[in-house]
Write a structure and sequence with these properties.
The protein has 73 residues and is an all-alpha fold. The chain has one domain. The chain has 4 helices and no strands. The protein is globular and about 30 Å long. The termini are far apart. 21% of the residues are buried. This is Bsl4767 protein. It comes from Bradyrhizobium diazoefficiens (strain JCM 10833 / BCRC 13528 / IAM 13628 / NBRC 14792 / USDA 110).
């Protein structure tokens, strides 16, 4: 469980980063998309990079990766 690994401030930053990344994206409410972004954010935090900017950057990298592997419509 995430709460066992991170302090309150880090968990709040992680949620803010996820919400910021997904807020105005066409697929922002899609579970698979959010999960991909969240996983990248968690990996970033586990590596000790817990600032909001670092977490948002990690989420943005997930968006780029998700676009790269997504099949064209």
């Amino acid at each position: 469980m995430i709460s066992a690994h991170f302090d309150t401030r880090t968990r709040i930053n992680m949620k803010l980063a996820l919400d910021r990344i997904c807020r105005n994206r066409p697929r922002g409410e899609d579970h698979g998309f959010r999960r991909s972004v969240a996983e990248n954010i968690v990996r970033c935090a586990l590596a000790g990079r817990t600032g909001i900017g670092q977490l948002v950057d990690a989420g943005e990298r997930a968006v780029v990766t998700t676009r790269a592997v997504r099949k064209p419509d």
